[in-house]
Amino acid sequence: MISKSSTAMDSIFKLRSKLKHEYYRFRSYVGRPKIVTNTKPVILSESNQCSKPIFLIGVHRSGTSLCRRIINSHSQIACPPETYFLEHFASMIRDKNTFAGLEGIGYDYPTALKEIRNWSSRYHEAYRLSQGKLRWADKTPHYINILPEIEQLFGDDAQYIMIFRNPLDVIYSIFKRGWNFSSYDSEPLKNTAFYVTESLEKQLNFAQQHPNRCFDLFYENLIKKPEETLKNMFQFLGETWEPDVLNYHKFEHGFGTEDPIVRGTTGFTPNFDNWQAFSSEQLSSILPIVEDVMKELGYSLDNSKFPSYTKSV
């Protein structure tokens, strides 16, 4: 049974977190860039397509928006705001009737899949061409749920940046905003913990299956050692190191549905261990859910034991 004092503490915690979040949102809105524009897409030619698309994969509140802006600052890579539309193509290729219907009008499976890939990427192709860049990248947290379908569409051509952050900080950040992405449990905090844990397990399983095309980027390393971390990432992508990406905030970026707070972000400001604001009761309720995936990623309640935030092999 949950005590009245515990319920009151939860209410105070949520109110305090909401007020803090709204304050930062307002401050970011006031300090946002004065002009935000998106270039009009161009007409495509199938003879000019990106050969190696990039997917930034991470749970909400893991640092995906920061990584998106950094990658979009590179002279050869265009990474727009969250796209969402690939989920519909994933549903399309998940349905066997899709290929049965296409076969009925003369498309065998390999040809049909190739055509669906062309259609699914044409918006990205138009965007990168409008930016005068050679490659496109996609950052959409929801795509954790369609990694097998993305792989089915893009195969060995695709590269993946797997973005990880302390799961407890991720849970705290989602919970304090009142966001809900799942229905695992009727209690909001536990529900968030289940969502984060399952999402991270999907990431880890996929990365283990495709180790040569996945780069593990830890948010804490990015903030503490941005140049070293990003040099390794761009080397993995096969791209030349460009120091200007460290000044990502000086470049123009479209913002789409991203959190307005991102618009006022500059540099690499430490934002660690916010989970310590959880009460002992709250922490006890979620640790049994998340502790295994924390260990697999190399995180602990005593973070001093894991200063580099790298997975054990």
Would you mind describing this structure in some detail?
The termini are far apart. Helix 7 crosses helix 8. The radius of gyration is 21 Å and the shape is globular. The protein contains 11 helices and 5 strands, in the order αβαβαααβαβααβααα. It has 313 residues and is an alpha/beta fold. Strands 2-3-1-4-5 form a 5-stranded parallel sheet, with helices on both faces.
Secondary structure topology:
Blueprint: H1 4-30, E1 54-57, H2 64-72, E2 77-78, H3 86-94, H4 96-104, H5 109-130, E3 135-139, H6 147-154, E4 159-164, H7 167-177, H8 188-209, E5 214-218, H9 219-224, H10 226-237, H11 280-297
Parallel strand pairs: 1-3, 1-4, 2-3, 4-5
Task: Please tag this protein with its features.
alpha/beta, disordered C terminus
Short description:
With 313 residues, the protein is of the alpha/beta class.
Based on CA atoms alone, the radius of gyration comes out at: 21 Å
Alpha-beta content class: alpha/beta
The topology string of helices and strands comes to HEHEHHHEHEHHEHHH
Q: Please estimate the helix content.
A: 40-55%
Low-confidence stretches: 27-38, 304-313
The overall strand count is 5
Main sheet record: 5 strands, parallel
Distance between the termini: 42 Å
How many separate helices? 11
